[in-house]
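for the recovery benchmark. tokens below, seq after
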């Protein structure tokens, strides 16, 4: 391999063709799809995507040397964006409906996903994303479980999510110290409406800052002098943050917005 992986960028290149095929098969790429691939690395998955003849491919690669190699390898068959995915503005997504692939850098994977969940411009047909297994377990966690968390709520607000496959360290070069999981995200047909997604971010942050404490205190912090009707939402002051399902959090956001807190 000509390019040496950079530890500082969390680079682990997927080379297992069996896993790559499972990712491609789960995506059902058509000739009308616009593809966005995050962290293509040396282009192992990119080559398989190209073989499906999509309408257009954008790849976001932060590493300049890798971007240069991808350009030499694929020429004008792909559109390379040499920047950090977290620096791409909402304007880039406006009017597009991407099919997204991503072997996301593990140190910023939840931040990337959170940004997409909270963006009003972000639209997809589907996402096939690789996460550290521990993070994936939190994304698909059930209410009342230890893995249930803020990223569970943000993700499941907009997407139906299912696990495609667990991936061993030996499927990458260099081998990471952790196992990985590929998840499929499909947009929900009907999304619970809230006025400002940042309020969902704020409320889940306040609740899960003390996830083992009863929710009475975070409710008081959020609603201050306003009277909060627990019965209306069907929750109790003695509940813990992990006891409330996604819809309960969205209803709390609706109340928060209605009272202008």
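predicted aa per position
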């Amino acid at each position: 391999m000509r390019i040496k992986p950079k530890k500082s960028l969390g680079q682990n290149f997927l080379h297992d063709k069996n896993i790559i095929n499972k990712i491609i098969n789960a995506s059902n790429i058509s000739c009308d799809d616009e593809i966005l691939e995050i962290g293509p690395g040396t282009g192992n998955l990119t080559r398989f995507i190209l073989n499906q003849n999509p309408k257009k491919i954008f790849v976001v690669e932060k590493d300049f040397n890798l971007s240069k190699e991808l350009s030499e390898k694929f020429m004008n068959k792909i559109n390379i964006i040499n920047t950090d995915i977290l620096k791409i503005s909402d304007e880039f997504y406006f009017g597009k409906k991407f099919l997204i692939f991503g072997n996301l850098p593990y140190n910023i994977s939840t931040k990337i996903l959170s940004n997409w969940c909270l963006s009003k411009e972000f639209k997809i047909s589907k996402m096939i994303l690789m996460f550290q297994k521990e993070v994936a377990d939190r994304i698909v966690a059930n209410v009342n479980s230890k893995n249930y968390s803020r990223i569970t709520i943000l993700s499941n607000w907009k997407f139906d999510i299912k696990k495609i496959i667990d991936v061993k360290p030996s499927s990458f070069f260099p081998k990471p110290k952790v196992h990985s999981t590929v998840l499929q995200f499909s947009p929900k047909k009907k999304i619970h409406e809230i006025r400002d997604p940042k309020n969902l971010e704020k409320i889940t942050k306040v609740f899960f800052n003390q996830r083992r404490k009863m929710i009475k205190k975070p409710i008081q912090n959020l609603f201050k002098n306003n009277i909060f009707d627990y019965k209306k939402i069907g929750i109790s002051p003695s509940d813990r943050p992990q006891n409330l399902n996604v819809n309960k959090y969205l209803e709390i956001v609706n109340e928060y917005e209605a009272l202008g807190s």
